[in-house]
Amino acid sequence: MPVRQLPEQIVNRIAAGEVVERPASAVKELVENAIDAGATRIDIFTDGGGRRRITITDDGHGMTRGDLALAVERHATSKLDEEDLLRIRTLGFRGEALPSIGSVAKLGITTRHASEPHAWSLHVDAGKKSDIMPAALNSGTRVDVSDLFYATPARLKFLKTDRTEAEAIREVVRRLGMARPDIAFTLAGEERAPVTWAAALPGAAGQLTRLGDILGADFRAAAIAVSAQRDGVSVEGYAAAPSLTRANALGQYLFVNGRPVRDRLILGAVRAAYADYLPRDRHPLVALFVTLDTQEVDANVHPAKTEVRFRNAGLVRALIVHALKDGLSREGRRTAANIDGAAVMAFRPNSVPRTGYDWRRSASAPLPIDRHTALSYGSGSATPGFAEAAAQAAFDTGAPSADVRPAETPLGDLLDRPLGAARTQIHENYIVAQTRDGLIVVDQHAAHERIVYERLKASLERNGVQRQILLIPEIVEMDEATVEQLVGRADELEKFGLTIESFGPGAIAVRETPSLLGKTNAAALLRDLADHMAEWDEALPLERRLMHVAATMACHGSVRSGRILKPEEMNALLREMEETPNSGQCNHGRPTYVELKLSDIEKLFGRR
Q1: How many structural domains compose the chain?
Q2: pTM
Q3: Is the pLDDT of residue 197 over 70?
């Protein structure tokens, strides 16, 4: 078959396949055109998930009659002052959107420029252009798209349900709305109730207002401001506290020079920054805005402009990680606060039981002391895990008291401390502390886990982890594959004071352990480490692998659930939490404490 030039209509339909993948793609291109035209208000209406109709109306600059005639020609654009693709300052620049849409649908454009006496309109039907006619429109531009893909019926088969396509359109508008809080947006259609986002005030406050309108009040309450700048690159935005997470990464919104993107580099940086705060199966909510010189980023690497390429990708990644870590560390204790009121609602009684209980008789009877439910510090000897946890220097204060009632504990100035004064321990795991304006419930194991973890990291940065030599090496029997895996990581483990070596085909000899952990169960520690290592990707940076090791060791070296604590021990734990970075969560991402304000408690009892 000889080489031949393709007809213009076929060329346009091929281009449409790259640019207009689905109705949401058409909405994205048209809204971006409105933004580039200087619009302050953009209204979007769709029907049938955008398949039957899409209407975009804006109050931007509009087009003259001559501009309108050129706008539907391929590669005609007003957005490139120079022929330099490294100086792109607008969202669109290729000049493909309108001719591509017009080649596969029925396209109508009505526009009016301030210099024109009236508006002009033009229609394109499957690539066939009509004459330009006078029309009525106050200002700006209105674009109508109907019967999308009717000229390419095969493409219709790949579209999903109207509801799914409508949700994709909504997501596109959400991202563009986040990028431009100074523009008012209205999204309406048969598939949804109208949604309006009013134009926000300039600056950080307006940006947070728009993010709260789109992502919800939970995000606004949990948002932590993040910022970092270096070598002409700026990273700003908001990150949700680790107490607010999602099961997927769809809640991560990233913008480069005002352009919404889905960049793997940035997503990886976000994951790395939250690694110390979240479980492996949870994802944070963030909205980050990267600003840099246009020559330092290539926006022309994807037909739909959803990906970018950085000249200095390492700098951008480092800045994002630094900004997020700095913000999370700064607000480390606040992150575990009860921001959504869920804990308060959990306390609300469903009904008042009707029983024959004699309250007068019970008031004079002595309270039973139950080690699981009574509001006391406990009695008797410690649980089997006590001997291991007692090795912790911060808690080496002797055996638990037999019976210490909360009222007998001197409070002093402890009520004014951020985590208050310990009043009791319940279920041998939860410390109840009192503050001036409420109460706090602390998970003792999760809290001490974070403390030990931060100590290990600090010790590693200073001069390495101090270790203790075992008088008699502990031999741990494991299967040969696990032994080989652990011995292969021996150098990494030794950085944390855990020295191991092979002891035959099915055993490992443990010769040194981190002194910070005190007496530890080497067999259990090695098995947990082996389980975590089995999930590692070989491409995982050494630093992250070491932090995984530190997290596992911290879990084994912390106060275990079931240990009965004395008042001094509980208060010591609270004070250490106040001084430890990121103490709002354990290193597995679980909260270490929840807080109930006195006002919330009074609401539960109808006092306000």
Answers
A1: 4
A2: 0.68
A3: yes
